[in-house]
Automatic annotation (TrEMBL), chain A:
Protein species of origin: Neorhizobium galegae bv. officinalis
Sequence similarity: Belongs to the CPA3 antiporters (TC 2.A.63) subunit C family.
This protein's name: Multicomponent Na+:H+ antiporter, MnhC subunit
Keywords: Cell membrane, Membrane, Transmembrane, Transmembrane helix
A Pfam family assignment: Oxidored_q2
Record membrane topology: Multi-pass membrane protein
Amino acid sequence: MELVLATAIGVMTGCGVWLILRPRTYQVIVGLSLLSYAVNLFIFGVGGVKTNVPPILVDGVPNSTLADPVPQALVLTAIVIGFATTALFLVVLLASRGLTGTDHVDGRNEPK
Amino acid sequence: MLPSWVAGATALLSLLIIAAFYPSVTNGGVLRFEGTWLPQLGLNFTLRMDGFAWLFSMLIAGIGFLVVVYARYYMSEDDPVPRFFSFLLAFMGAMLGIVISGNVILLSVFWELTSIFSFLLISYWHNNAAARDGARMALTITGIGGFCLLIGLLLLGNIVGSYDLDKILVAGDVIRGHSLYVPALVFILLGALTKSAQFPFHFWLPNAMAAPTPVSAFLHSATMVKAGVFLLVRFWPALSGTYEWFYLVGLAGIITLVLGAYFAMFQQDLKGLLAYSTISHLGLITTLLSLGSPLATVAAIFHMVNHATFKASLFMAAGIIDHETGTRDMRRLSGLFRYLPITGTLAMVASAAMAGVPLLNGFLSKEMFFAEAVETHADSILDRILPYVATLASAFSVAYSLRFIHTVFFGPPPTDLPKPKPHEPPRWMRSPIELLVVACLIVGIIPAVSIGPFLHTAVVSVLGADTPQYSLSIWHGVNLPLIMSAIALVGGTLLYLSLRKYLATCEDGPPILRNLKGQRIFERILVEVSWRWARTLERRFGTRNLQPQLRWVVATGFLAGLLPLYLSGFETREIAFSGIDPAFAAIWLLGICLAFGTAYLAKYHRLAALVMLGGVGLIVCITFVWLSAPDLAITQLLVEIVTTVLILLGLRWLPKRTEGLVEAISLRARFRRFRDLALAVVCGIGMSFIAYAVMTMPVPDAIANYFLENAYSQGGGRNVVNVILVDFRGFDTLGEIAVLGVVALTVFALLRRFRPADDSMDLPEQQRIQNSFDEDRPERSAGDTVRDYLLVPSVIMTWLFPVIITFAVYIFMRGHDMPGGGFSAGLTLSIAFLLQYLAGGTRWAEDRLRILPLRWMGAGILTASATGIGAWFFGYPFLTSHFQYVELPLIGKMPAATALLFDLGVFSLVVGSTVLILVALAHQSIRINRLRAIDAARTEEG
């Protein structure tokens, strides 16, 4: 499981990094989304990989077997904030495109 | 003139209060006040008044009062007088603060405040460019000095282990023996020397003379510039007595003493002469303090008081001359004695004191200075030349004092005065000068009776057991100091007589050196540092392009991650490998393909890339389910839906991009791509490695157990993640929803002025095709196809509305015990609204539904905050939650925690923000019609 997850995180990071270094705003926004998946999974993975033990208290089940709730709480926050930043970036991207007429990240096609 | 009365009364009252403290500070008594400020950092609002502080406070409040009286008549009715007096009082408060601070950090705060008020007072006539420049220069120099002082004081506090002044003053031996002594000394001296305008920082003071004269009299001769030497005296017990002290302080002092006096002789501006004379006298005090002998310190304290009295009165006299004649240029002034006999007499006495003529206070302290100069302290060249240098500087000061009086008051009547008929000023404008001059005389004639006891009190508080025997009398017999005084008086007079002709017409400033202006050097340096260097740095390392910036960020991030791994030798500590589930591996194989696909297609096939991105999101979501994180899975799924719709709405406004058949790629672009690819690959591999290492490490016994054990007993919920969010870390969540709200408002604001690029103004291609299909067929009218598009799904979506709302309520209610909660419920409800927009279009949806997202947001943040504040009323900290079970009819036992109320706030805000963002974006398609209409109207007009 860890091996699969680690590979997946690596691939998503690589694709994300490649995309945020591209010149088109759309590529950057998609890249940021991929990166945030990777980061969320990474933070989540810090708590250890456990199956079928959600951090929901059930009488008779010892607490120590449950999954770590702290990274989960962090990632939950991160998902919502990630949504907010994506929305903001999307609108900035559109405004920049409307103002400059291009979808290049610098607002002009040829670098000065 | 109410402001002047208020200011005068305040100054007088503080003078009386300070005077009343006298009995408590005699014989080394110390008055302390301690108020807690930041006790955990060792910072307290400690005030401390000993004899020296008392003497200085009297000086500040006393001269402050006189200056207010003087300024009452000096300032014109047209000036904004309230501002002037409030700054003056504020300065007085800050200055008193420096003097009576019992904590060195507090002292530094007041120190900065005096710099700021000095800036504001110098630039009081801010229409005058010279005032602005002078103010800025003074602030820059004293501000840098203040910063150095703070560093020095922090070092000092570090050495002693306390910022309390009393503790520092008794730790002199520890400080001098410490390895940090020299840096601390250098930084503190930088602060003191800049403030007291000592060489090489002296040049700000003459430029500060653009201030109104009462300010010059108060700040720039009597008090603020004395703060530097005050500090030297204050820390004299702790810092002095070493070679470093002697050389640094002595060198600055001696150079300033001579140069200041020399420059003063050649000034044409009355205030310029007085400013350089002030610099020189401050140099004298500094020199005395450098010697490290107790007697010299007595002389220094005595001279501070004397200088304040005669220099303040001279400044006021110069102000009267300026006020009455309209000029301060000594080439134009002459023979004023016949018009201003009383002022003239007062000025003569004061400048005689400045020159060190017997029977006046200046003479006494100057004699003490000479006596100390003759003594050998630290055998060195500096020490051996001191008597000669002292006599020379004294001769200079006789020359410029003589010049001041002779040029202005004697000789033929003036011919070209801007105000031709000068006369004596109002009685009360002159009275402060009278008072000060009388003080000069009294102290000069009967020193032991008048100033003696007070001086003794001050000296004892600084020197303690080292207080030397000294006698304050005019006649000590014919000794070396007296002979030196005589030489200086005769030599100075001869010097003036020989230079008279030259001085009557020469330019401002001494010959040759007048071209070497500290001011110009300062400005050069400023331009060099703040303009040229900054420009060069920007040219070398700056870029306005995003890609190189991001590349640097990513590369730095990679290296920052690599370094600790490299240092630990790339070891993964323990293997807790839990096998590979083939199904899990299979879905991630798909996920990896989708991620690659997204990266590959994002340039030319945006929609396909978006679909693939959604696929990756879905697989992340499945992973969360698989790995025991149901809450995350729910939230991820819902956010995925909303994000996808959002980006879909945005795609409409992006330019069309089609893949060319043959694309000529330059070599540079190829290289750039290769470099980015390499960066992406190493980052990916690195991340995989770290992730694998982290996940296979045994999880330490972290805070997880605390939350697992206390979630139910303290938070009253079984879903630990939700309890953490709304209870344990409720404050973080409050911040988070605030961020969400801010983002939504920003999006809303940005889109209000949104104007798409010209090539996106037309109808989308698909709509055009659909419309032309309609137009070609007679039985259809335009817009039918668009209306009927996805008819069946849209009916289902409409019907789903109540179902989804119920589902949202369900998710919300179970949140505390089961996966769910405010976030996911809020997203669910906004998806319900969103589907209505999708089903019927914006117009249709808004005809039937009135969602007021701003109200939802407001209600949400208010509910969440009110829940938090509610805890205060029961005496608990912000956001403390309370819970109990309530018996409800029909439903039964229900957990009711105040955290649920907080979650309701989260829910409401999430709904409002999400809907606001989506609707604002959706509205652009309607707004564009209006924009088109406006454009069409414009074209017709044009």
